[in-house]
Amino acid sequence: MKVRGNVVSGINDFVQKKFPEKYALWYDTLSDDSKNIYNKVASSQWYPVEEAVIEPTRSMCDMFFVNEKKGSWESGRYSAEIALTGVYKVFVLVSKPGFIIKRAGRMLPTFYDDTEIHLIESSDTTMTVHITRLPIKDRIIEYRIAGWMEKAMEICGCHNLKVSLPKSIAGGDEYTEIKMMWE
């Protein structure tokens, strides 16, 4: 599985912005392969997911967060915040949550190759999404995607949002399920 450089840049920016005094320490924990990617990341280029996302995120989680879920989730939220601000923020603010998540289903494969996501159920206060194809079985990717969706829903104006992952490809299920409920 490969990821687009925008994802890689987002992780790098997240660590630089949230933990500036420890950025160099985090960078030093990376393997030479990861460092080579982070030294010359191009937003439109594809990179191997292990060296570009999983290893750097795992290191970030070990250094700055209580667990992989929290760190991966926060990194995904940050990515949505960056992606859905500026010109896109007005578009997101006037869109219904289901429309944004349907769009996310089209956008996901442009950032994570060979992935597939489907909006299964949508109402005024709930939404269920299934990721039916995710070539790498690692919860870091699932948590990043769920964090991204959570922040996108918040930007859309959803309040008291609750997001859960009752099923996980990484956990052995047939698909990853992301359930969202709000008021």
Fraction of residues in H or I helices? 40-55%
Percent of residues in beta strands? 15-25%
- Counting helices, strands and paired strands, the structural category is alpha+beta
Give the assembly state of these chains.
single chain
Unreliable residue runs: none
Rg, alpha carbons: 16 Å
Strand elements, count = 6
Task: Tell me the distance between the termini.
Answer: 36 Å
The major beta sheet can be summarized as: 4 strands, antiparallel
Strand order of the largest sheet: 3-4-6-5
Task: Indicate the mean pLDDT.
Answer: 88
Order of helices and strands: EHHHEHHHHEEHEE
| Number of H/I helices | 8
Shape label = globular
What key phrases describe this protein's structure?
183 residues; alpha+beta; four-stranded antiparallel beta sheet; two-stranded antiparallel ribbon; 18% strand
